[in-house]
Amino acid sequence: MSADFAELDRKSFDVLVIGGGVNGSATAQALAAAGYTTILVEKGDYASGSSSRSSRLVHCGLRFLAPGGSMLRLADPRRLYKTLWTVRNSMRARRDLVGTIPERLRPIRMIFPLYSDGPYSPWQIDAAFGILRAFGGNDVPLDYQRLHGRALQGEKLPFVSWLRDPERLKGAASYTEYQFDWPERVVMDVVLDAQRLGASVHNYTAVRALVRDGSGWKAELVKGDRHVTIGAKVVINTAGIWIDKVNAMTGAPVRRRVLGTKGAHIVVKLPDQCRGYGIATINRANEPLYCMPWRDLHFFGPTETVYDGDLDDIHATRADVDFLLEEVNHLLPGLGVARDQILFTWAGVRPLTYNPAMPKGERTRTVHDLAEDGMEGMLALTNGGLSNHRNSGADLLARVAARIKPSGKAGTPSRAARRFPSEQNSPPLLDDDTEIKLSDLAYAAEHEQVETLRDLLERRTGVVWTSSRAIDVARKAADAVAPVLGWDEERREREVKEYIAEVERLYPRDPAT
Q: What's the DSSP call for residue 62?
């Protein structure tokens, strides 16, 4: 890999994409498919930031209709138009994803309880789902039902008997939603396809300087102890919560573009009858609260607090856990979730669009033309979510196409999920899960730019998202890939220790502070 990196020195590209999360990878794929010579760089591993830390929901758009007290926002036509535009894109993205990568998604059945003292009347919920249905078509149905109080009890749905204030429960809406079973793998699928299309893709590669050079840009890139300088006609900043830090490298007096809000989650094991079912509701802060099924587990979240801490050390705090436990036990007092039931926690920070009039950021996906700040030929994207990553890539491609013509050959992007080669005789990594095999780890190590054990277990295979957090198989995994990566005994021990330390830091069971 170091030799390949050294060969970049003094090379020129049409476009430099900074940030290897879901939006950067989708943008690199779209550009490469259109024939633009493209380089994608990520300072950590692919999908190691916000892309791997969300609530993993393929939003149908219901939450965009809900905040602010008025489900339909009729009082402000401009706001209503923007909301409906966002909802339409959400439903179209939902249909696109379910139709093309069903292997990466899981259908789940969500329950939205309706209370007499709640913020929304049943007719508003009916109207909201009517809007969703109108935008979504019939290809991927919502399967919406609204059950009245008595019918709700007769259905014997999970969670209902545990809900608060049964005398105020007027009924519930029930609908089918989808979640990303493995968002990190979605990112890797797209990165690898961008590479297939000709993009030069590099993880653990940081941008150290950005300088305007004639009609283009010069960028200094660092990987380990190697430095190279490349040229690009256009720079696209998809660094997520690091966007403003990347913009500051230019030395220009650029305005703030991103505001981060933190979403923390707690993971528990619920009774078997809850499997495949979840709850969507509004917490006492008038913000969304979900209980989401996650394979054979469930998680509650997210929180929503403005985050101004260390962008490289994001994790749930004791205050986050206390808040979630209070809200969960207010909603479901009959369930009674205790602190010692928590298997692990996690948190991510949403890269929302900064708007001084909106204290918790603006949720509109926005492409920023930084020429407004004297940075001609540089674009940035805020609030690009998992579900809409293909739209984000297409939007940024259109902005590039309005500026320059491609200098390479066009190709056809693949929307399919990539599979590990089948090795029937390979033993599984986890004793209770045969999905990931030791041969899969070896293949990823050889073909997918793996540098650490964390890359393998957190992102290439996703086994960190299990009740054990894969701590018990860390050594087994290190032994499986050591021959491929050339790790001696000392390196294996170090990788295992660093993996466990990373898990305890980012996915703690019970945060100390």
A: H
